Amino acid sequence: MLPHVDYVRAEGVAHALALLDRHGAGARLLAGGTDLLVDLRERRSAPALLVDISELDELAAIRAEDGALHIGAGVTVAALREDATVQAEFPALAEAARWFADYLTRNKATLGGNLANASPGADFLVPLLALDAAVTIAAAAGDRTVPLDQFLLGPRQTALGRGELLREVVLPRSAPAGQAYEKLGLKHGGAIAVVSCAVVMDVRAGRGARVRIVLGAAAPRPFRARAAEERLEGQPLSAERAEQAAALAAGAAQPISDVRGSAEYRRAMVQALVRRGIDAAQAAAVRS
Amino acid sequence: MKDLTASEFAMVGTRAPRRDARDKIHGITRYADDFSLGGMLYAKVVRSTRASARLVRVDTSKAAALPGVRCIMTAADVPHNVLFTDVPGQTTVVGALRARTQVLAADRVRYFGEPIALIAADTEEIAEQARGLVEIEYEDLPGVFDPVEAMHPEAPQLEETGNVISRWRVRQGDVDAGFAAADVIVEHTYQTPFIDHAFIEPEIGVGWLDEDGVITIRVATQVIEHFRDVANVLGLPHSKVRLIAPFIGGGFGGKEDVTVEVYIGLLVWKTGRPVRLLYTREESIITPTKRHPFRMRYKHGVRKDGTITAIEAEFISDAGAYAYLSPLVLLYAMVHSSGPYRCANVKVDGTAVLTNNTPTSAFRGFGSAQPAFGYESQMDACARAISMDPLAFRERNYVCKGESLPCGQPVDHAVLLTETARRAWEALGPSCAAPPGKRLGRGIASTLTSFGRIVWLHDWSAAWVELQMDGTIMVRIGVPDLGGGQASSLVQITAEIFRIPMSSITIHIGDSSLTPLAGTTTATRQLYMSGSAVHKAGMELRAGLLEQASSVLGVPAAALTMDGGAVVQVDGAKRISFQELAASCSRSGRERYRHSVFHAPAGKVMDFETGQGRVFPDLTFGSQAVEVEVDEATGAVRVTKLATCYDVGRVINRNSVEGQMEGGAAMGLGYALTEEDILEQGVPRTPNLMTYLIPTALDVPDITTIVLESGEGSGPWGARGIGEPAMVPTAPAIANAVYDAVGVRLTQLPLTPERVWRAMRDAAP
Ligand SMILES: Cc1cc2nc3c(=O)[nH]c(=O)nc-3n(C[C@H](O)[C@H](O)[C@H](O)COP(=O)(O)OP(=O)(O)OC[C@H]3O[C@@H](n4cnc5c(N)ncnc54)[C@H](O)[C@@H]3O)c2cc1C
């Protein structure tokens, strides 16, 4: 059962920021509510006021500007899934949206909610980190842009300060053509990741370039497996090297054991998925 | 009395739209929760947060002081703080005792989530808040969470009579001689998990005191006969409690034992006000009952020619903290233990044991599903061990009509297993090449499941069928409709008998005071029992009406039939409408209605020493074939094709039969691949649908349903039950397909990616 909580529908970002300012720590932003309402119901969070930003058009746009794609924090997963630019230029992100939750949830859940919630298994953090995304944070004092890696402080911890709002995700449009997102769930519909990974790379003269390998649900927060990346960066690509990189990624994982799987299995699956991701990204890079 | 024959059927076997379908699709159907009354209180149950503890202190004073709280009850406030589940014919330590459950924990809790107190308040929020204010002091007691450990004499004891609550055995022939005669012996130990019924509608009811002081409870239940249990707890005459079952959002055995009705009854009795109690999904998952985990050691002896020379099996069932129906579930498992196969030498021992886990009880298949995973995995392994085709090996051993199962259960009706297996297998079609990194495999399973209650329980169902003065028909029968179309099928049977459209028939169901009692919607018995009761009452009324028409029309009854809402002369011009006929009955004092009781054939109690004898009135047989795709790297299994084929005797409603077959296979797929209630030291770790994983539309392939009609079965016009049988073969068929794909035999359900991955890794050279 949901606890009693006051509710205001924000009229715009400025209004939302003003409300956050006025109500301080007791106020929480409500986007799709697919994380927040669960938290409220389970008493993990007890705000006094919900500021609903789910109807704000200014947060729901995807636009190309200054060599970057700006994806509003309020863009739903369903909208993200259908966006032509995302599909063409950021297939790793499109793939994460494809296997995200289920039809109903995707119509409500937003990109911003996924990032702000910062769960260790959040799907979008993984490809976005690999795509060198930045986020724009809005505050009464003005906007600031920070790299996603710095936005993400730990499990369920972000750089969002009191009175701040995540406005958009900024993706540089010169992303490598080789992209893959791999997710292992325990079923096909609505599964939370046991582990996931994103691999992004170019292939230049048979060598890896701009390689990013990011692991999800394999540590308290998604992270770049840098040793694995280095094994491919500037190196001639081969099956053997791909396997070595995958093993390095598995070595870098700090998985836990829970009802979805043991740490041992998760680690092995990091290796399997990274291997698969490298092969897929490499093939895509070579194709383009 | 002459029955209608298949060639005459106008309604039976058609896809007549279910009469409840439209309202359900439009969201109009009023389920138990779609109902409220003025001044209604909202109830909550205060539950144990320990799996095994003594209650030192339960202090409700702070909760009671909260404004809006109207009533708090603890064990001391319950007139008779005990619920009984009758377990007839038990021969064990429990003896003739009746299985007991405390309504509210008095001084000891035996499982996590056991009810300790009840709260009724003006709003759900207040009740919830009050729940947090009840102070409970526990003294932890050692618990036991594994049934094998619980069997040790030194293990913590849940009851003074010991943890072993039931032992059954089956003996036939000489297994030692049988194994000596075998060329190959195949032995494995199988394990099945706790699973949740996961019905879409959690446990829910609304109760009130009517004008006559009758406690009336509109509740999602499979068993309106629980009005007696509620009355016994309250110390009231049985006629002072009335249960009404509205349309129910799924039961699957989870609403077979008493759930919320007894708490609602207590709070209505205490406050005199209407009371609603709805479980959250979490409560629904952590509270009784679940499916029994079974540990099953199976040993089969086979000769190279495909003869099964001996079967030995040992079952250990985790009953959880209270017996509920565990002894009966185990008995069902014994009867089904060898599968639908002939074998001269059989020895099976079963034990049900109490632990501090969530209590287990009825679940679709009722003890026939766990052994099926064992014996059908064994059949596959045996066939492979003698290099015989798994289908051919089964065909050699299927039991035939006129024979008996190894436990002496006679097989009275057609056994079309060969046809079901071949048809299901063929329906998979030609194989394709596996995608890279994946392996494809196919598997089959043939199973049997009884329908109808145990013959020495003397089952019956009663129906009232009435011709109204306007020529329409009314049926009254105390059947709870769980969503399987139980009521609609009865209407369809009535429509056949009277040759009127289903829309000219009204049915009243599920009221323990106002509809004739028809027994439980369990044991796949309603089409069989209540279908037969309606058939009996309907045919008797039909005969009476034909006689009346005969005297009015001056035509012999044998020359009359019914058509279009009238009695008409066969090949003749004379006719009398139902409306005129009803008026004529009234004038002449002939009854326009019939109340008939259908008694299932009764039988003697089985021999407890040997397990020999008839236990069930009838059996349903069928097969499922599946194709799976196994991910070599992750162990993930995807079912790509699934075909299910049953002999249902006679189809009453084709859509409903296929719906049961599809739903059963989908449920079986969850049992096979994802569903598991994980308990750690008795604490549920998967208390919501994010962690307890039921299949979604993306996990279930298009299912091919093939329906055979032998015309032989104990139900109306030869119908057999399909509700429970439909889920039983799926898990072993999938496990056999996984073996076919990757060459490893998984012996523990569910086949999670991690289990498959480990098995592949361990088997790798
Ligand atoms: C059935 C189901 C399936 C799911 N499956 C998946 C899955 O497959 N993968 C996955 O990653 N997640 C999954 N989730 C989790 C959830 O859907 C996602 O994390 C989703 O993206 C959250 O977005 P939302 O708009 O619903 O956020 P909300 O619940 O509205 O908000 C989440 C948090 O973010 C804050 N917030 C929201 N928007 C902003 C903003 N613009 N600025 C600052 N803070 C903000 C809120 O205050 C809150 O703290 C699932 C959830 C459900 C219920």
Structural commentary:
The complex is a heterodimer of chains A (288) and B (765). By secondary structure, chain A is of the alpha+beta class. Chain A folds into 3 domains: 47 residues, Uridine Diphospho-n-acetylenolpyruvylglucosamine Reductase, domain 2 (2-Layer Sandwich), CATH 3.30.43; 114 residues, Uridine Diphospho-n-acetylenolpyruvylglucosamine Reductase, domain 3 (2-Layer Sandwich); 110 residues, Enolase-like, domain 1 (2-Layer Sandwich). In chain A, 37% of the residues lie in helices and 26% in strands. Chain A contains 12 helices and 14 strands. In chain A, the strands form 4 sheets. In chain A, strands 4-5-10-6-7 form a 5-stranded antiparallel beta sheet. A 4-stranded antiparallel beta sheet of chain A has the order 11-12-13-14. In chain A, strands 1-3-2 form a 3-stranded parallel beta sheet, covered by helices on one side. In chain A, helix 11 packs across helix 12. The radius of gyration of chain A is 19 Å and the shape is globular. The model of chain A has no long low-confidence stretch (mean pLDDT 96). Chain B is of the alpha+beta class. Chain B has 3 domains: 165 residues, Aldehyde Oxidoreductase, domain 4 (2-Layer Sandwich); 186 residues, Alpha-Beta Complex (Aldehyde Oxidoreductase, domain 3); 237 residues, Aldehyde oxidase/xanthine dehydrogenase, molybdopterin binding domain (Aldehyde Oxidoreductase, domain 4, 2-Layer Sandwich). Chain B has 18 helices and 30 strands. Chain B has a 7-stranded mixed beta sheet with strand order 3-7-1-14-11-12-13, sandwiched between helices. In chain B, strand 12, helix 6 and strand 13 form a beta-alpha-beta unit. Chain B is globular and about 85 Å long. Chain B starts with 20 loop residues before the first helix and ends with a helix. About 1% of the residues of chain B have low confidence. The chains are: A alpha+beta (288), B alpha+beta (765). Chains A and B meet through helix 12 of A and helix 3 and helix 18 of B. Bound molecules: flavin-adenine dinucleotide (FAD). The site of flavin-adenine dinucleotide has 30 residues of chain A, from strand 2, helix 2, helix 6, helix 7 and strand 10.
